[in-house]
Amino acid sequence: MASSAALQCLVLVLPAVVIVLYVLTAFPHTPESLVLHPSLSSLPHDCRSWQIYPDDFFDGGAYASFPLGRVRYWLLGPQDGSRVVLIHGLSVPSIIWQDVAPQLALKGFRVLTSTDGGYSDAPQTTYDVSLYVTQLALLLQYIGWEKANLAGISMGGAVAAAFAVQFPHLVTGSIALMATTGIVDPGDLSRTSRFLSSPLMQIITSSSPFRLYLKHLANNETSIDDPFSELIRIQSAHLPGYNPAIASSIRDGPIRNLAPVFAQLGRQTRKSGGSALIIWGTDDGVVPYRYAKRVQTLIPEAQLVTLQGAKHDLTVTHPEDVVNHLSAFFKEVG
Questions:
Q1: For the whole prediction, is pTM greater than 0.85?
Q2: Are strands 61-66 and 69-76 parallel, antiparallel or unpaired?
Q3: Sheet containing 110-115: which strands, arranged edge to edge?
Q4: Pairing mode, if any, of strands 83-87 and 69-76?
Q5: Tens digit of pLDDT for each residue in 250-280?
Q6: What are 306's strand-pairing partners?
Q7: What is the Cα gyration radius of the chain?
Q8: How far apart are the C-alpha atoms of 113 and 103, rounded to whole Å?
Q9: How many CB atoms within 10 Å of residue 196?
Q10: What fold does the segment set 36-188+249-333 form as a domain?
């Protein structure tokens, strides 16, 4: 009797088990589609962003389509000039190079600058070091550059350092780091940045009521006293991918914990005979000047240039100094 009951139970259960196994193996979960948030190019032309930072801000602009969305880039200067890549920082895109890129081009350099954010799509993903260096590697391949000099400001400096370490064959061996992040202590990050980049605040700031409030503030701004702040305000209000990208970059990106990368760059520079230049302002309130010595300790071969009185936006406040130092450095290293 026991065997008969077991057989009946098996007959009843077996079909259900077979059906479940069939469904699990025959109908796998569909991979999630990549979400691409739009860029400034999606905003109407009466939006003030087009006055501050149009898509033809520099000559030689074009778009490249990559797996993680469209990227806007500009190529300036003579085609046979020494190649230099300018990498911007966290919140303000290539407008930070407004007085540097054209001057380097006039001095005979072939200058590439692109925008992660601004007129580039914002993929819904983790904004870590790998994302930034991979996008840059794809862009260099897209435009056909086999090697280039690198110059990065703020977070762009950390991206440049990581890129040089991960893709040394794409770098001439010359790299300039300006007020670079990468080894920032958490205590030096503003409370506002830490608070707004928290997962809880991102849920709040992504909500419809909060976004309507941001749009209200942005749309009722009548003057452009500070174009950089205004551009940040517009992107924060109108581009749904902007705030999450900034928050992820602060949490996961090349702001902190890159001391091993800088140390590796130092060893790499020493071994290959390459050169490094560090430029820093004494009044930098975002990444304090004391970090200049820390970076130089990790990259002993690097030359340190100190700009007295310069703050974090030194490419805007001291463009002539920056251009002269970059030009002399890249010409010296060939």
A1: yes
A2: antiparallel
A3: 61-66, 69-76, 110-115, 83-87, 148-153, 171-178, 275-281, 303-307
A4: unpaired
A5: 999 899 999 999 999 999 999 988 899 999 9
A6: 280
A7: 24
A8: 13
A9: 17
A10: Rossmann fold (3.40.50)
What tokens were used for 101? 């890129």
HEC states along the chain?
A: CHHHHHHHHHHHHHHHHHHHHHHHHHCCCCCCCCCEECCHHHCCCCCCHHHHCCCCCCCCEEEEEECCEEEEEEEECCCCCCEEEEECCCCCCHHHHCCCHHHHHHCCCEEEEEECCCCCCEECCCCCHHHHHHHHHHHHHHHCCCCEEEEEECHHHHHHHHHHHHCHHHEEEEEEEECCCCCCCHHHCCHHHHHHCCHHHHHHHCCHHHHHHHHHHHHCCCCCCCHHHHHHHHHHHHCCCHHHHHHHHHHHCCCCCCHHHHHHHHHHHHHHCCEEEEEEECCCCCCCCHHHHHHHHHCCCCEEEEECCCCCCHHHHCHHHHHHHHHHHHHHCC
Instruction: Tokens for 249, please give them.
Output: 């970059």
Per-residue model confidence as pLDDT tens digits over 192-236? 677 667 777 677 767 777 777 667 666 665 555 678 888 888 888
The Cα 19–Cα 264 span in angstroms is 55
Residue extents of the structural domains in the chain: 36-188+249-333
Burial class (CB in 10 A: 0-12, 13-18, 19+), 10: exposed
Distance between CA atoms of 76 and 60, rounded to whole angstroms? Answer: 6
Please, what sign has the CA dihedral across residues 219, 224, 230, 234? positive
- The token pair that represents 84 in the structure block: 């230099």
156, two tokens: 């762009």
Strand 36-37 with 122-123, pairing: antiparallel
Handedness of CA 170, 174, 178, 183 (dihedral sign): positive
**What are the angstrom distances between the C-alpha of 330 and each of 63, 274, 317, 325?**
27, 11, 21, 9
